[in-house]
Specification:
alpha+beta, ten-stranded mixed sheet, four-stranded mixed sheet, 9 helices, disordered N terminus, binds ligand 0WD, binds calcium ion
């Protein structure tokens, strides 16, 4: 691989190919006016069943059933006995999103395409979770990331590569951590009904293979985006706004007992919650606050649009505009670097806390992620 090393991202530092070598993540550089972010539009959805099979429909969509203010849900119930855990050593990369694209090509090939433009009519295809990591980068001090990018028929596909540190974390989780990962899914089961006229079934099996994903299209400044994100449930009201406006994101968090805990919640957790739900236009976040024994002692709703006001009292807190401007500049950086249209060529972008974003180029390597079935079908 050709390693490009730390050089500041400034037009004067651009090399002979017109692309900068690296991108700074310093938050001060991104305190500009809020960039244009078009209201995300749902263009489709898909479901993954208990065996992780793909279906081009909403069969796994669940319905929100409002709990009481202090429901006392026991999140430990059913751990081990009624729990089927997805194998997270299996890397699915963009495969499910690509399956959705093949099944719905007509829905995204918008109107007349000029011959020079991309075949899909979007600049980027990725998972929402990957964009969440980009948005929170200027404030992240713990975990780095690696994002692989390939250009194919004018569209840039972005797929995460697990860092060495993340792999070590995943392989050395304590029994307590393993159980606490279950708690979030158990909370969903207490709140979600399978049918619009149904009630939640806390006696059922929690299977983390099952998922309902929305696919949205939007634009950040001059970047046309298509991405998919997992959605926990929707409100039952049939007169609710159309998706994604009817979706609800569910979260669990440790109960807040001290001012320090409240400050940390605002500074770190609400940043991640805001970024994740703002991206696809999910308006409501419902949080279950649990004690050390996994009992939900309080439930609180956080409207996504109110979060940035909520945090303004924190000294030196995060700002949505910094997140969005950094994402805009990162996508411009990727566009300037990922020039060769070749699905077997991967530009691997890496970032570690207190460092710049850098990249390396890999041809026909372990990082190639666009599968032959996708390339063949798209070329026919
Ligand atoms: O291969 C990978 N490295 C990843 C795959 C990383 C992230 C996601 N995925 C895939 C999975 O197929 C999953 O079904 O993405 C889907 C979810 O995508 P997303 O919405 O873009 O991911 P994100 O916003 O990070 O997570 C949304 C929810 C999580 O809920 P909470 O409330 O904890 O944020 O998706 C679940 C989790 O419930 N989730 C995952 N499910 C399966 N595989 C994964 C994962 N790797 N990460 C989060
Ligand atoms: Ca969730």
């Amino acid at each position: 691989a050709d390693y490009k090393t730390n050089k500041r991202h400034r037009s004067s530092d651009e090399g002979q190919h017109g692309a900068a070598e690296s991108l700074s993540a310093h938050r001060q550089l991104y305190e500009r006016h809020f960039p244009l972010y078009k209201q995300p539009v749902e263009v489709g959805c898909f479901s993954l069943d208990s065996r992780r099979s793909f279906f081009n429909d909403h069969r796994q969509l669940r319905y929100y059933v409002q709990p009481t203010k202090s429901p006392g849900f026991n999140l430990r119930d059913g751990y081990t006995s009624r729990f089927v855990k997805r194998d997270d050593s299996v890397k699915e990369k963009l495969d499910h999103v690509l399956k959705w694209i093949l099944a719905n090509r007509d829905k995204i090939q918008t109107r007349v395409q000029p011959p020079s433009s991309s075949a899909l009519g979007v600049d980027f295809v990725t998972w929402r979770g990957h964009l969440t990591k980009v948005l929170t980068t200027p404030y992240e001090t713990q975990e780095g990331w690696m994002l692989a990018a390939s250009r194919f028929r004018g569209t840039i596909y972005i797929s995460e590569v697990e860092t060495e540190a993340a792999r070590v974390n995943r392989e050395t989780r304590s029994e307590r951590q393993e159980e606490m990962m279950y708690w979030g899914y158990k909370f969903e089961q207490y709140i979600c009904a399978d049918d619009v006229d149904g009630t939640p079934d806390p006696g059922g099996v929690v299977n983390t293979n099952e998922a309902f994903c929305t696919v949205v299209q939007t634009r950040l400044a001059d970047h046309k985006l298509l991405f998919s994100g997992e959605v926990d449930c929707r409100v039952k009201d049939p007169d609710a706004p159309p998706a994604p406006g009817c979706y609800v994101e569910l979260k669990t968090s440790a109960e807040i007992c001290t001012p320090k805990q409240r400050s940390n919640f605002h500074r770190y957790k609400l940043l991640k919650w805001w970024a994740q739900s703002f991206l696809p236009g999910v308006p409501q976040i419902v949080a279950g606050f649990r004690d050390h024994d996994g009992i939900v002692v309080a439930v609180e709703a956080f409207p996504t649009s109110k979060i940035s006001q909520l945090i303004k009292n924190e000294y030196n807190c995060w700002k949505p505009t910094v997140c969005m401007n950094f994402c805009n500049d990162f996508l411009s950086f990727v566009k300037s670097v990922v020039k060769e249209d070749n699905p077997r060529l991967v530009y691997l972008f890496s970032w570690d806390p207190h460092r710049d974003v850098t990249y390396a180029v890999h041809r026909d390597s372990q990082y190639t992620f666009l599968p032959d079935w996708y390339i063949q079908d798209m070329s026919s």
